[in-house]
Write a structure and sequence with these properties.
Elements lengths: L10 H13 L5 H14 L4 H5 L8
Helix pairs in contact: 1-2
Length: about 60
């Protein structure tokens, strides 16, 4: 089962998703986001590396 979620992204983030989508022949940016989320889910030992460091490229 899937649902739609609206997410606000900065231009740099959108460009990144488009670039990796093209590089890896993904159908759209949504697939790139799902790949990133699946990685985070499948690698719970990486949660601290992903979520504890504050990264604010647009602040």
């Amino acid at each position: 089962m899937s649902s739609e979620v609206s997410v606000s992204l900065h231009q740099e983030q959108i460009e990144y998703l488009v670039e990796v989508g093209q590089k890896y022949n993904l159908p759209d940016a949504g697939k790139a986001i799902r790949c990133l989320l699946n990685f985070a889910i499948e690698k719970p030992e990486q949660a601290d590396a992903i979520f504890t460091e504050v990264r604010c490229r647009a602040c």
